[in-house]
Amino acid sequence: MEVPRPMGVERTQSAGRSSIVSRLATWTENLSEQTYALLLLAPGFLILLLFAFWPLASSFRMSFFEDVIVGPESLGGFVGLENYVSLLTDSNPFATLTFLDPAMETPILQQALILTLLFAIISVAGETLLGFAYAMLMKAEYRGQRLVRVLIIIPWAIPIVIQGMIFFLLFRPGYGLLTGPLHQLGIFSQLPLGDAFSGFVIVTVADIWKTSAFMALLILAGMESVNQDLYEVADVMGASTWQRFRYITFPLVFPALMVAMLFRTMGALRVYGIIESTGVGCSTVPSMTCLVTEFTFGSTTLYGSAAAVSVLIAITVGVFISVYLLFIRYSNQSLGLT
Amino acid sequence: MSIDAQDHDDAETLDDQDEESKNRVQAWAADWIRNPQKAYAVMGVFMGGVLLATTLFPLYWLFAVAMAPPGQTNIPLIPTEIDLYAFVDIFQQVPFARYMFNSLFYATTVTVVVIIVASLAGYAFGRLNFRGKLPLLFSLLVLSWFPPATLFLPLFRAFNQQVKMLGLFMLPAEIYGTPGAVIAPLSAFTMPLAVFILMTFYAQIPDGLEDAARVEGSTRIGALFRVIMPLSAPGVATAGILTFITVYTEFFFSFLMTGDAASEWAPIVNGVLAFQSRYTVRYDLQAAASLVAIVPVAILVVLAQDKIVSGLTQGALKE
C-alpha cells in the first residue's frame, strides 16, 4: 500500500512538487462534500466507463447490426432483431459448427442454452450439497482445523487452466487414470474428452471440485452468524442432531445459502475456461460463452451474432437473478423475517 | 443406529469363532446405541476424511504424474521412483518462468490499481453523503452481475482493430499483446467487489479519529491514506488478496486478450497450454508446470486464510 509521506516532509524535500501537491490539497479542502465525493469517484468510474459500461452498451448496439463475413468492414447495416431471431430459430446457419446435434436440425443457440442451463443447475446443486458438508467440516472445532480449512480452500484458489489440466490428465485418451475403469464400466467412451456426454460430466465434476469451497465459505459465514444460545436451548429441550439442523441451522443459514447459490449460478452460466482447458473443447461441450468466442475467432467472423449471444447470456443471468431475488423476498416473508 | 446393530448381527454369524473380536464389536455397538453422540463423531470423522480425500486426490494425481519419467504414458497411482527432473525441465523447454512472471505482474498491477482507485470510491460511498450515491452504488452492483463475455467483443475490437472507444477516440494501435489489454478489463471487472469490501470497512472507522487527524492539520486526502486506510488494514488486505487471486486464476480475458508467446506478455494460461499442444506426450511437464503455478496462490491461502474467509463473507453477503 502506498502511503504518501506527510505533507511537511515532502515540502522540505522537494519544493517544486510539494507546491503542486499542497495546492491540490488546499483546493480539495474547499470543495463541498458533494463535489469532493464525485471527485473521489471519478477515477474508478472512468475505468468502469471505458472498460465496462461502454463495452456493455456497445455489445448491445452491435447485436442489432448485420454480420459481414467478407470485406474490410466487420459489421453491416442495422437489421433490428434479426440476429436474435435467426439465432433462436434457424436450424443451423453456421455449417462449420455442428456441436451436439450432428443432424444440424436443432438451432445452435438452443443447444448451447440447454447445455449451459443443465450445467448451471447440476453444478450448483452439487456445490451446495458439498459446500454444506465442507462448511460443517470447517466449522467443527478440533486439532488441525486450520490445516483442514487451508486444504479445503486451495482448490478455489487454483487457476482455471490448471484445474482443466488436472482433469485432462485424469481423463486423457487411453491412459488417463479414470479413463479405463470408467470405459470398462460402460459409463464413458474410450475418448471421454471428445464425447459430448462424458465431456459434460467431466466439466461439471471439475467445476464442482473447484468451486464447492467458495460455497462452503459463504455457508460457513452464515453458520457463524447463528446465535449459539439457540443450540443450548435446543439441547435443553432434547432436540436431536437432525432437529437442530432442520429447525435452527438450516433456516438461519438459508439467506446466506441463497446468496451463495446466486453467486455460483452467475458463475456457472458464464462457463468457458474449464471447457477449453480440460481439452474437452467448445465443439464438444458448447456453452453460451463458447458461441461468443467461436463467432469471434472462428473461420467466419460473425460479430453481430456474437454480440447478440453475449446479450442473451446477460439476459439469462438477469432472469436467474430476478428469480433468486423474488424467491429470497418471498421466503423472508413466509419465514417472518425482514 | 439400527444399521450398526444390523451389521454387527451379520458379522456375528460370519465369524462365530472369533469370540474376542465379536465381543469388542458388540461392546462398540452397545456403546454407540447408548451414546449416539459418539457414533456421530465417528461418522463425522469418516465423512470428513472422505471429503478431504476427494479434494486432495486430484492434486495428488498431479504430483504422481509429475514424478513419472518422461515418455511413460501409463502412470501408476503410486510413483515407482521419485524423479524431480520435470520441475527443472519445464523452465528449459518453455520460458515458463516468464509466463509465471507475466501472470504475477498482471495480478500485482491490477491489485495495486484496484486498491487505490477502489479506496477513493469506497471512502466516498462509505463516509460521505452526496446526491446520486444510491444510483451509483446500484450501477456498480448491476455491473458486477454481467458476464465477461458481454464486455468482451467491443474491448477486443477496441484493442485490436482500431475501433473508437465511446465513439470518440481510438486507442493506440497494437495495444493487444501489451499488458494493458489484460490489466484494463480485469481492473474494471474486479473493482465492484473491492469497492463493496472497502466501503464497509471504511464506514466502520469512527468519525472522531478522522476529525482528530484533520485538527492535527492533515488534509482530506491525507486523512484517507494516513488514517482511514491504515486503520482498515484488514479490509484493505482482504480486498487485495481477493483481487489478486481472482486475476491470477482468471481464464477468459487472460486467454483471449493475449498472444501465445511469453515474450508477448502471455500469462500462465498460455504457458500451461503450451505444454498441452507442443509436447503431447510429456505429461510429466504439464503436471510439473501446473504444480509450480499453484505455489504462489497456495502460499497466499496458507498465510491469509482468515482474510479470505472474512473477506468473501463480508463482501459477498453485504447486499
The CATH class of the largest domain in chain B: Mainly Alpha
Shape of chain B: flat
- CATH superfamily heading of the largest domain in chain A: MetI-like
Strand order of the biggest β-sheet of chain A: 1-2
Task: Please name the two chains that share the biggest interface, counting residues whose Cβ lies under 8 Å from a Cβ on the partner chain.
Answer: A-B, 103 and 109 residues
Strand tally of chain A: 2
Tell me the β content of chain A: under 5%
Describe the structure.
The complex is a heterodimer of chains A (338) and B (319). With 338 residues, chain A is mostly helical. Chain A has helices at 7-13, 15-29, 33-62, 82-89, 108-139, 145-157, 160-171, 179-184, 196-224, 229-236, 241-269, 273-277, 288-297, 303-334, and strands spanning 65-67, 75-78. In chain A, helix 3 (33-62) crosses helix 14, helix 7 packs across helix 9 (196-224) and helix 11 (241-269) packs antiparallel against helix 14 (303-334). The longest helix of chain A has 32 residues, at 108-139. The radius of gyration of chain A is 26 Å and the shape is globular. Chain A starts with 6 loop residues before the first helix and ends with a helix. The model of chain A is unreliable at 1-15 (pLDDT under 50). Chain B is mostly helical. Chain B is built from 14 helices and no strands. Chain B is flat, with a radius of gyration of 27 Å. At the A-B interface, helix 2, helix 3, helix 5, helix 6 and helix 7 of A face helix 3, helix 5, helix 6, helix 7 and helix 8 of B.
Brief descriptors of the model:
A: about 350 residues; mainly alpha; MetI-like fold; two-stranded antiparallel ribbon; 14 helices; 2 strands; about 0% strand; B: about 325 residues; 2 domains; about 75% helix; flat; disordered N terminus
